[in-house]
Input
Amino acid sequence: MLQKGTKAPNFEGKDENGNTVKLSDFAGKKLVLYFYPKDSTPGCTAEACDLRDNYERFLAMGYQVLGVSRDSAASHQRFIAKYSLPFHLIADTDLSILKAYEAWGEKKMYGKTTEGTLRTTYVIDEKGIIIDAIAKVDTKNHTAQIL
Output
């Protein structure tokens, strides 16, 4: 996991609409960059809906919210539409952003070791510095962990 106080890695990816999104787009703004395993699964839905339900609080405090998973843009479009998510989701199908942010690796699930997305959230300040790194995400109360 990347450490607090370090510079956030630059990234470039495509959102659900095929638009290019880069870290530099958020220069001068605070960013909640969250990595999650899969659209429309119970934990990922709980996390996204908690962020959605508190989105206005984030905006009022100067934060932008951006989600990243390896799902396709089409999957992200369905997820956003189904749950009325007000923020963009990056389709990191080549895992470049997940790996740059150390959100891809070994994990154990049901006694098996597999490679996959490590649910992780980074809070990045206006200058591109990681000011918080959350590895043990409480999907139903993630906003409280961040704020």
